[in-house]
Design brief:
With 647 residues, this protein is α/β, with parallel strands linked by helices. 37% of the residues lie in helices and 19% in strands. The strands form 4 sheets. Strands 9-19-20-18-21-22-23-24 form an 8-stranded mixed beta sheet, with helices on both faces. The protein has a 7-stranded mixed beta sheet with strand order 4-3-5-6-8-7-14, with helices on both faces. It starts with a strand and ends in a 10-residue tail after the last helix.
Length: 647
């Protein structure tokens, strides 16, 4: 990994199916090397590095842009900390017909508000990537200066929306913000970059495109008022989204509704906050709740008439937001939804006629907090309470307004969800990247990964969560139920309960030097034995990699390889396929040697062997031994850590 971009080789590791949708890309497979983004900055680099001529970077972080774009022209990068100077520079370049992008933190962009308004007045097709580190509030403060505003829901979204914003901005002469939200959780998703053929077809080469200044028919050169001019934006944006879908099979719209039909209760979130809501719908519907979710992508232009049509039959709508405006009538997104229904109720032009407005609940997640399955269930229960439900509530950091947490309903058929527990965030990041690449390469599944810190109740330390499925995994939230939990240190079971999210019939993988099942089972604390017994889980012992003669840095690669072997072993145990240990070792080696900043070949060879040994997991506690240990199980059930089992 290097600054959000991974270079994949044409060897066995990269030649297998990519972790993103293999049918979603325009990758011909002919290139010996491919660039893959793994985070938002990498996605921006892939999109703007393919189409832009000038990139102005005020982020303070390195964005790994290539020296030339997809058309073979130089990509000029200018860095600086003065937002106003860079905004003025963007105006100058765009006025001269250059294709320019600005990358900055959303909070700092407010200091150049007047210059950004001038860009809109001049009708320049500039794209600004606003990185929001603390919720969407900083970006929403820029929503009313005449720019389009698109909110990304993940890494793939970040890349696609950059292309969509570029196409729409140049077609209608309106600048666009693309907001990329980042939080305490490091969210990654391998994505293959756009090809030259896609860029030429979709946005056109900068040198061959008719410039705005010389094209009298271009909308930006028409003498109309601001409101008449802005009416073109929804059509340009919709056209850009539909054409990208035709070229890549990746569907984008101003909002995503799931399921497609009507639901009596709807959860609505903007951008990244809408992802976990969509991801939880299947679990809730399997439990009998008539629930749907809506993830809003376009905040400007706001799709009011379409949104009313999608929500008109709902009884209750919960709008979940990351920022609270306690002195306003409503929070930002909630206010837009209510305004749209007010227009519909008064028969405003273009709006569908409605006879009533659903109960609209406004929830605030709070900055730095994560959406959990229990939070989503609490929102649904609050809507079920009818008039007794809280119309304005918080999910964290505001005790008087917090909804009571409920036990999440069981998962119907959860995808492969793997968690590895380590001691520090750097090791968690390395293990996350290696495991995601190996799982995708060996199993052909699509992968997303997140690195987060554990609470004290869960034993502290850091974990990386990997979700893999045939369809692209949704959401960056903590999985409700984990199929495999692997620990780097068995003592973590004593300090807390790191297996609290273990799914029914899941696997607990513990490092051990024991060679017999009885000795391994004796090392498991009573509360953990009760959890394993009651959830019909398995316990396997794996040989920790030998670090004799290795540096601490080299030892991390061996640990990452071992976790990768355990993850593939879990996929094999679920009946997906029977994988050969030599295949696992070969794929681990290929991933490590082709990873920038990765280990040397001798270290990669030793790590691949550690991955093979972990895959084979020599010691497993038989079910008969677990079932007959009644005394320890009864004792463990008295421990509060063994309560509230997910399924």
């Amino acid at each position: 990994m290097e600054n959000g971009v991974v270079r994949g080789s044409g060897g066995a590791g990269a030649g297998a199916r990519d972790a993103s949708d293999a049918n979603d890309t325009n990758d011909t497979g002919a290139a010996a090397q491919r660039l893959r983004a793994i985070d938002a900055l990498g996605a921006i680099a892939l999109a703007e590095g393919a189409v832009a001529e000038h990139v102005l970077n005020a982020l303070g972080e390195e964005v790994p842009l290539p020296p030339r774009n997809a058309f073979g022209e130089p990509v000029v990068v200018e860095r600086g900390s003065d937002i106003r100077a860079l905004a003025a520079r963007a105006t100058e370049l765009a006025s001269g017909g250059k294709r320019v992008a600005l990358i900055a933190r959303a909070r700092l962009l407010t200091s150049a508000r007047d210059l950004l308004e001038e860009i809109a007045v001049q009708r320049l097709g500039v794209v600004v990537h606003a990185v929001a580190d603390a919720g969407a509030g900083d970006a929403l403060a820029l929503a009313d200066i005449g720019w389009g505003a698109l909110f990304s829901g993940g890494v793939l979204d970040s890349m696609d929306l950059a292309l969509i914003a570029r196409r729409a901005a140049e077609d209608c002469g309106t600048p666009f913000f693309v907001i990329h939200e980042r939080g305490a959780v490091r969210f990654t998703e391998p994505v293959v970059g756009p090809t030259r053929e896609l860029c030429e077809t979709y946005v056109g080469a900068p040198t061959s495109r008719i410039r705005r200044k010389t094209d009298a028919a271009h909308p930006a050169n028409t003498a109309v008022g601001a409101r008449s001019f802005s009416e073109r934006v929804p059509f340009a944006l919709g056209s850009a989204m539909r054409e990208l879908e035709a070229l890549t099979s990746r569907r984008h719209d101003m909002f995503e509704r799931y399921p497609a039909g009507d639901a009596s209760l709807v959860l609505l979130g903007l951008g990244r906050l809408g992802e976990p809501l969509v991801a939880e719908v299947d679990r809730l519907r399997a439990a009998g709740h008539d629930v749907g979710a809506l993830r809003l992508t376009a905040f400007r232009p706001f799709p009011g008439p379409r949104l009313v049509k999608a929500l008109a039959r709902a009884i209750g709508v919960t709008v979940l937001e990351s920022d609270d405006l306690p002195l306003a009538q409503s929070n930002a997104v909630t206010r837009e939804v209510k305004s749209a229904f007010a227009d519909a109720l008064t028969w405003a032009p273009d709006y569908p006629g409605v006879g009533r407005i659903p109960r609209i609940f406004s929830g605030v997640l709070g900055r730095g907090a994560e959406v959990d399955s229990a939070d989503v269930d609490a929102c649904v229960e609050n809507m079920h309470s009818d008039e007794r439900g809280k119309r304005i509530f918080a999910l964290a950091h505001d005790e008087p307004h917090t909804l009571p947490k409920t036990t999440p309903v069981p998962s119907g058929n959860p995808p492969l969800a793997f968690r590895g527990r380590v001691r520090d965030p750097a090791t968690a990041s390395i293990c996350s990247d290696v495991c995601a690449a190996v799982i995708a390469s060996v199993t052909g599944l699509r992968v997303r990964a997140a690195v987060r810190e554990l609470s004290r109740a869960e034993g502290e330390g850091f974990v990386f969560d990997i979700v893999a499925s045939r369809d692209r995994p949704r959401g960056a939230h903590v999985p409700h139920a984990l199929r495999i939990i692997a620990l780097d240190d068995a003592s973590a079971l004593v300090r807390g309960n790191p297996i609290t999210r273990l799914a029914g019939r899941g696997v607990v993988a513990v490092p051990t030097v024991q060679r017999t099942p009885d000795a391994l089972w004796a090392e498991i604390p009573p509360y953990a034995r009760a959890i394993v017994h009651d959830r019909r889980a398995r316990v396997v012992g794996w040989a920790p990699p030998s670090v004799d003669g290795e540096s601490a840095a080299d030892g991390k690669w061996s640990l990452a390889a071992a976790f990768a072997g355990l993850a593939v072993s879990g996929a094999s145990a679920e009946g997906r396929a029977a994988y050969d240990p030599s295949l696992v070792a070969r794929e681990v080696f290929q991933v490590l040697v082709h990873m920038p900043g990765g280990p040397s070949e001798p270290v990669a060879t030793r790590a691949a062997e550690a991955g093979r040994r972990a895959f084979e997991a020599a010691v497993e506690v038989p079910r008969a031994l677990i079932d007959r240990d009644d005394e320890a199980v009864r004792l463990g059930r008295r421990d509060a850590r063994a309560s509230v089992p997910p399924r």
